[in-house]
Amino acid sequence: MVMQGLQKRTDASPAAVLVVMGVSGSGKSTIGALVAQRLLWEFEDADWFHPPANVDKMHNGVPLTDEDRWPWLRAIAAWIDLTRGSGRRGVVACSALTRRYRDVLIGDRAGVRLVYLKGDEALIARRIATRHEHFMPPALLHSQFEALEEPGSDEKPIIVSIEPAPREIAARIVVALA
User: Fold this and answer.
1) pLDDT digit of tens for each residue in the chain (178 aa)?
2) Within 13 Å, how many C-alpha atoms sit on residue 17's CB side?
3) Packing angle between helix 52-59 and helix 66-85, nearest 10 degrees?
């Protein structure tokens, strides 16, 4: 189903956790926090789950390998399970660039929904250029687009363009969940 530039998942289980995905600079943290605030859910940023060695690599412009990412993804998945298992609801902002990574985070977990913040490289590069104090340097953006596997229809993502203002994007996600 498509609603004003977004696609809505039709799923019988209500969302308990949202995974807000996209490349660096797509607005995952901003949008995720706004959605969590509107829904009165918890918010976590997947960046907070990175071990110091990963942060150092990214800060130095070194792309992470799959081996670097597996413990990080498992830590995020553990948070998702803890949130669901305790009856709480949450939003996590996470790049989740490949299907393999999303399978670790979402897999067959009921009530975990994927939101894909979609934008083109030029727009995101302009936004990253104005960002300060983030450990992901602009030089790594292209590698993120090279690694990106856009979610397939079988993942039933909510797909939202990042062109509107953050509050509008958050509102569209909330409507898609209703």
Assistant:
1) 333 344 333 445 678 999 999 998 899 999 999 999 999 999 999 999 999 999 898 888 787 888 999 999 999 999 999 999 999 999 999 999 999 999 999 999 999 999 999 999 888 888 877 665 554 555 667 888 988 999 999 999 999 999 999 999 999 999 999 8
2) 27
3) 130
Per DSSP, 162 falls in state: S
Half-sphere exposure of 124 (CA within 13 A, CB side): 23
Exposed (0-12), middle (13-18) or buried (19+): which is 1, by Cβ within 10 Å?
exposed
- Give the SS3 label for residue 57: helix
